[in-house]
């Protein structure tokens, strides 16, 4: 899970100070020392750490904390603010050219995930912004790279412009832009060549494309798992190309987060997007504040809601809400609900967005296991239609049969039936509470 190692350490540290009614300078000193160590261990650039700690210290012993009624919490707010600022403060939006098409040039080293990200970005622009991009294959040194982009284009059902490996990348880019104007593509995303290392010839070629094409954005794609190496690569590309933003890939596997926390401070260029998996819909706009929240275990409810809005069918959600209110929610609905939650991505990532979920005892290793979801689905599928609607009729011998049919155990079946009945009880209580408050039910199912 992204930032897991860093998050674990920081959360332990801040827990100690959160509840304090009084915060002494000594407390702040101890906390900042631990934060400093946690960040260095996460491979955050040491200069960046030094400056950050100085700012946290200054604010944490300042008036805003000392005169506050909840100094412990106020200190954590300072840490969160400063982490947010470190990652760029506000979310940085993607450019829109006055006259279409908007041209985005993708640059980066080989293997960083440039081509995959080109596809993901095109998908994001279409899904979230209703745009109609043209993808351009400018990596003429590797025929496989052109093929890879064409395959992505087919998967996404999007046009890909290529002139094979004989043409000059500057010509390809120019002709692609002319074609985009003709075909009314409002974005042109150029996938350029990568190299194993920062190399003079490559930079010259990229500079030529830049001078000729005048892109609205130059996105550097870096692999976040490479930590400070990614920061050094970003520094070189920025010096030579004056990039406009960074896309951090493979953040899903980056438990440390050193690149994410250092890149903005070192290059002064914002992180625009984060790659959270290999699939084409696993690209997220980068929100510094939400990321800081996740690192500090405060959850990221906004991203969760946005994910739910994209992946959960609104009509089905309304129907489900109605069923819950009228208490006619069955195992069939439960199965459907699970399917929708699954579409939202790996459970671990979802849980990281729920405030405090990582602190719930047993949740981390027990209930987050995908195989358990599969088990639950198998059990429900082994019930008869009648049983799914009214699980109270499932007696001892049926429990055994269901366990056998689903390849699980009677204990697992019993557990699920118990959980379901408890969930219904809880729904009833919540519905009653809502009724008491508003006179009318308005219960919302989690994730919706
Ligand atoms: N887990 C994970 N894998 C990713 C992500 N982004 C890219 N990858 C994987 O990283 C590998 C390299 O990606 P490519 O897109 O082929 O790399 P590239 O930078 O275009 O490489 P060149 O075309 O050689 O320059 C592929 O296996 C991708 O699936 C991400 O956000 N998360």
From TrEMBL:
The positions annotated for binding GTP are 108-115, 191-195, 249-252
Entry keyword tRNA processing: no
Q: Which reaction does it catalyse?
A: GTP + H2O = GDP + phosphate + H(+)
**Matches recorded under InterPro entries:** AAA+_ATPase, P-loop_NTPase, Signal_recog_part_SRP54_M_sf, Signal_recog_particl_SRP54_hlx, Signal_recog_particle_SRP54_M, SRP, SRP54, SRP54_GTPase_dom
Q: What is its EC number?
A: 3.6.5.4
Please list the GO terms describing molecular function. 7S RNA binding; GTP binding; GTPase activity
Subunit text: Part of the signal recognition particle protein translocation system, which is composed of SRP and FtsY.
What NCBIfam families is this protein classified in? Answer: ffh
What the protein does comes down to:
Involved in targeting and insertion of nascent membrane proteins into the cytoplasmic membrane. Binds to the hydrophobic signal sequence of the ribosome-nascent chain (RNC) as it emerges from the ribosomes. The SRP-RNC complex is then targeted to the cytoplasmic membrane where it interacts with the SRP receptor FtsY.
* Comment text on domains: Composed of three domains: the N-terminal N domain, which is responsible for interactions with the ribosome, the central G domain, which binds GTP, and the C-terminal M domain, which binds the RNA and the signal sequence of the RNC.
This chain belongs to which protein, by name? Signal recognition particle protein
List the source organism. Oceanobacillus sojae
Gene name of this polypeptide:
ftsY_1
